[in-house]
């Protein structure tokens, strides 16, 4: 579904991406894990045609998205790292508007919007103006906007920023549902624990290079001498 081949992008003397190579299968949840400034967002900008690489190729569903950036954007759904402006809109309105932009069937958009609001427990805030909502609720709204009519590749850039633990679990359930329906998901994160729980495979990126790639179990084995155990407790989700 996604093939990234030898992607290199420099800004002056700084190589933001240095010979990046990986591929993602249909229906796979693939994680790109690395600290801030490691080159993750630069790579995403090239995937959706906002930046052009110095060299290399990117194909999504056999389409060269470097030569055809507009078509590439139609094939991809993106939740950006920063919340987009929802000024004057309620979550319900913003999600339905995103569905219309994605050329979804009107009846399907309404059904899917109701489903997402319910499954992410957002009904309480569905019809409140976004300026009065918390950052976490706005973040969940932008997630819904990205998946209301998902592309063949859904790109989620730090999707759980500001989201409370309960709704983080609900969000990951929706990610798994996308994958089960054959949608490919590219997850961008610096959260090791979330990446391990949520992805089929992941790549570790550092200083613009892929330093390790494999399943969470494989990478844990490679770094077993430097692992730490972290336990967390959360309240039972109320229905």
Describe the structure.
Helix content is about 35%, strand content about 25%. The chain is an alpha/beta fold. It has one domain: Rossmann fold. The strands form 2 sheets. The protein has a 6-stranded mixed sheet with strand order 6-7-8-3-9-10, sandwiched between helices. The chain has a 4-stranded antiparallel sheet with strand order 2-1-4-5, covered by helices on one side. Helix 3 packs across helix 4 and helix 3 (about 90-100) runs parallel beside helix 5. The N and C termini lie far apart (about 35 Å). The model has no long low-confidence stretch (mean pLDDT about 90).
Q: Assign an overall shape.
A: globular
- Top-tier CATH class: Alpha Beta
Gyration radius (Cα, Å) is: 18 Å
Distance between the termini: 36 Å
Structural class: alpha/beta
Residue share in helix: 25-40%
Helical run tally? 8
Largest sheet: 6 strands, mixed
CATH architecture: 3-Layer(aba) Sandwich
Compressed to H and E, one letter per element, the order equals EEEHEEHEHHHEHEHEEH
List its traits:
Rossmann fold; 8 helices; four-stranded antiparallel β-sheet; alpha/beta; 239 residues; six-stranded mixed β-sheet
Q: What's this entry about, in short?
A:
The protein has 239 residues and is of the alpha/beta class. The chain has helices at 40-47, 69-75, 91-101, 106-119, 135-147, 165-180, 192-198, 216-222, and strands at residues 2-11, 14-24, 29-33, 55-60, 63-64, 76-79, 153-157, 184-189, 201-206, 209-214.
Topology record:
Layout: E1 2-11, E2 14-24, E3 29-33, H1 40-47, E4 55-60, E5 63-64, H2 69-75, E6 76-79, H3 91-101, H4 106-119, H5 135-147, E7 153-157, H6 165-180, E8 184-189, H7 192-198, E9 201-206, E10 209-214, H8 216-222
Parallel strand pairs: 3-8, 3-9, 6-7, 7-8
Antiparallel strand pairs: 1-2, 1-4, 4-5, 9-10
Helix pairs in contact: 3-4, 3-5
